[in-house]
Specification:
With 313 residues, the protein is an alpha+beta fold. 40% of the residues lie in helices and 22% in strands. The protein contains ten helices and 15 strands.
Length: 313
């Protein structure tokens, strides 16, 4: 978290001490924290001692080789980060576009979208705004944005929580496809209902019931209960099985466009698709954050027209 250029932090001794405390915890070093903030090692020790006296607890265990935070320090660190984040939020609301994006961005996304698209786009974002720090966590499940302390959750599909703000950053849909070897052996299903006779590769989507596929076709929305001998909660595994000819997969067009173009996968029941737009989800509190808004605008631009844009069919 980079708050050292904040006039509020610089002019308030307690906030400066909280920033120093947070930086030491992040760097696990008095010397490294002092170097980052432009403070001498002797002054670092003096300010930590003063903060410990103010809070009435020991914040760090210190030896000649390492610094580790205490259990009481861990509890105080949560408060320190909250206070500093609130100060930054106030400044961002007040200064708006005049404030350069800075601080930590915590972002969650699914494995394949995160690995092949979000991660390289965030690298470009970091080059443009070097005062940003980025933490990206890849999870094939829906995250609890507030409880797990994420700034942005990149989701595919519907967003139903009323206490969150969803911004669509790319249009997409899911389709059915399989390897030519599987279709040569088992044949093409002629109707959605015939999927019950096929091996379907089941992936526990972040927002869908396990084994229930809902797709839109000529007759509107249809639902089919699918089964198969192979299932996983990891998208990379299911995609690998699809390429090896073990069954039919439902996946986003951007995720299979290259495989279809190269003939490794073939579309199944092309009249059917499932809306699966990509959204960036934030809390209501984060709506006015400069760093978050800059990130959302950058993601939207790059996912639609950049080097790592999502491909369609």
């Amino acid at each position: 978290m980079e708050n050292q250029n904040s006039p509020v932090v610089n002019n308030d001794p307690f906030l400066r001490d909280l920033l120093l405390f947070s930086t030491i915890a992040k760097r696990a070093s008095f010397i490294a924290a002092g170097a980052e903030l432009g403070i001498s090692p002797a002054h670092v020790s003096k300010r930590v001692a003063a903060l410990e006296e103010t809070l009435g607890c020991k914040l760090f265990n210190r030896t000649t080789r390492r610094v580790s935070i205490t259990s009481e320090g861990e509890a105080m660190l949560v408060w320190a980060k909250t206070i500093l984040d609130n100060v930054n939020g106030m400044l961002e609301t007040s200064l708006g576009d005049r404030l350069e994006p800075r601080g930590t961005l915590r972002i969650s996304a699914s494995h394949r979208l995160g690995r092949f698209h979000i991660a390289p786009i965030l690298a470009l974002l970091r080059k443009r705004y070097p005062k940003l720090e980025v933490w990206l966590e890849l999870l094939d499940r829906r995250t609890d944005l507030i409880a797990e302390n994420f700034d942005i959750d990149i989701r595919v599909g519907e967003v139903n929580e009323q206490n969150l703000i969803a911004r669509r950053i790319a249009d997409s849909q899911r389709i059915l496809c399989a390897a030519p070897s599987y279709l040569a052996e088992r044949g093409q299903p002629a109707t959605l209902a015939e999927l019950t006779l096929h091996d379907c590769l089941l992936f526990r989507e972040r927002e869908q019931r396990f084994g229930v596929w809902r797709l839109h076709g000529g007759n509107g929305l249809e639902t089919v209960k699918v089964t198969g001998p192979m299932a996983s909660n990891h998208s990379e595994v299911v995609h690998g099985w699809a390429h090896e000819g073990f069954g039919i997969i439902m996946a986003s067009t951007w995720d299979v466009a290259t495989s279809i173009a190269e003939g490794k996968l073939v579309r199944v029941l092309p009249a059917y698709q499932q809306p699966a737009n990509v959204s960036a989800v934030t809390s209501v509190r984060a709506a006015g954050s400069v760093k978050i808004n800059v990130c959302l605008e950058f993601l939207t631009a790059q996912l639609n027209a950049g080097a790592y844009a999502l491909k369609g069919l």
